[in-house]
């Protein structure tokens, strides 16, 4: 595939991803316009709402200014002044990243990946910016410069990840990969092995933590199903409104899973100023009647801190997966110090990844006490790093001594034969 064809295909994929992202909320909103409002409202209002949702989901802040009629319904004095909403439904960002990974991998296989991803990124900048401009209105207005920049950065993250994955697993003589290999060859082999193994293991530990959090969310919804149904009934939004509320909650499900991961590592999360949901107890105060919130624990959990076992186990499994590779790279060097160093590096990287996820999942959901919801990134990252490190230290210290000795002898023989 020549460079022009690869670039055009990547540009088309960027356009399609923007279109799909906007149309996902636009379809149910259009049905609401037709069924609930009987075509009596200007459809462009629903277009702007869909654009706002997509932009918010990809990290663009919205400035909300409520009119007098809405203020009377809301009943919050602080809402009289314009306020920022930055609490992003991460399902949209997740979709953008995954599609970016797909495009990045396809671009590498085309043989002209650099030109393709640059073109794709530029197209995404243009069309995301157009969506942002059309969404500007007196009630909810996205940040114009963020509309051009932030969604494209999310797309770019997926592109870079896709290129990296394909270069790592694919059979290619790419010059960029050759330069990276040259740089790695200049680094001591055991240090390079520790870094690569720790990065893979830490990412695996965070993935295990997220999987565990997803299971906890599923169990919580099942146990609190009666409360969830009661909140649906109390809302009295009808069938179409119920479907819209459900879709909105699905869009925020990645946030909930990340918040639950923060709960598992200890700090928990907040639902506004003066509230806390953590293993030690739950204090929420007045919160919106969102059905999904009915699954939250309503009192102290006697065994809440058992959740701390999840990051410990994740760190243990991650260290076991990396241990043999580190030992083989060390050869005849002293193993204890390097194994402990590897465990610490795994914990630090996992903590950094958890902090980024917590930061991405939190934000401002409204005025007054809702200016900050979600976990505290630094605290969640620090606790995750500490717990994963402890689990990784145990994992690095585990295993058969015979296998360790065998790995070391094999590495030593390899070094002697190479020197010979």
TrEMBL record:
Entry keyword Membrane: yes
InterPro entries: DUF6350
Pfam families given in the database record: DUF6350
Residues spanning the membrane: 12-35, 83-101, 113-139, 145-169, 239-261, 301-320, 336-360, 380-399
Keywords noted in UniProt: Membrane, Transmembrane, Transmembrane helix
Domain of life: Bacteria
Protein name: Integral membrane protein
Lineage of origin: Bacteria, Bacillati, Actinomycetota, Actinomycetes, Micrococcales
């Amino acid at each position: 595939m020549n460079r022009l064809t690869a670039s055009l295909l990547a540009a088309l994929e960027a356009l399609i991803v923007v279109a799909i992202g906007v149309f996902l909320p636009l379809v149910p909103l259009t049905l609401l316009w037709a069924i609930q409002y009987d075509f009596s409202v200007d459809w462009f209002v629903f277009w702007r709402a869909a654009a706002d949702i997509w932009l918010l989901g990809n990290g663009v802040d919205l400035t909300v200014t409520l009119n007098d009629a809405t203020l009377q319904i809301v009943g919050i004095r602080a809402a009289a002044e314009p306020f920022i909403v930055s609490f992003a439904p991460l399902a949209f960002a997740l979709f953008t990243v995954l599609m970016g990974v797909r495009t990045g991998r396809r671009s590498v296989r085309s043989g002209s990946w650099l030109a393709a991803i640059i073109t794709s990124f530029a197209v995404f900048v243009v069309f995301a910016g157009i969506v942002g401009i059309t969404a500007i209105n007196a009630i909810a207005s996205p940040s114009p410069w963020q509309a051009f920049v932030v969604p494209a950065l999310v797309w770019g993250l997926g592109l870079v990840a896709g290129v990296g994955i394909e270069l790592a697993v694919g059979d290619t003589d790419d010059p960029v990969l050759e330069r990276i290999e040259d740089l790695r060859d200049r680094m001591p082999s055991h240090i390079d092995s520790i870094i690569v193994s720790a990065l893979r293991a830490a990412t695996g530990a965070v993935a295990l933590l997220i999987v565990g959090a997803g299971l906890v969310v599923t169990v919580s919804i099942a146990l609190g199903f009666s409360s969830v149904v009661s909140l649906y009934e109390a809302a009295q939004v009808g069938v179409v409104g119920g479907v819209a509320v459900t879709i909105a909650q699905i869009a925020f499900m990645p946030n909930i899973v990340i918040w639950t991961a923060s709960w598992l590592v200890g700090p928990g999360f907040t639902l506004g100023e003066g509230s806390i949901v953590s293993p030690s107890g739950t204090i929420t105060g007045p919160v919106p009647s969102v059905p999904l919130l009915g699954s939250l624990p309503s009192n102290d959990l006697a065994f809440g801190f058992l959740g701390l076992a999840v990051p410990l186990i994740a760190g243990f499994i991650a260290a076991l997966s990396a241990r043999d590779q580190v030992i083989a790279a060390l050869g005849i060097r002293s193993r204890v110090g390097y194994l402990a160093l590897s465990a610490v590096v795994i914990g630090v990287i996992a903590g950094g990844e958890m902090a980024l996820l917590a930061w991405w999942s939190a934000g401002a959901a409204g005025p007054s006490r809702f200016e900050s919801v979600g976990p505290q990134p630094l605290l969640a990252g620090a606790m995750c790093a500490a717990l994963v490190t402890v689990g990784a230290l145990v994992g690095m210290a585990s295993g058969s001594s015979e296998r360790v000795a065998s790995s070391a002898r094999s590495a030593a023989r390899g070094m002697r034969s190479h020197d010979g």
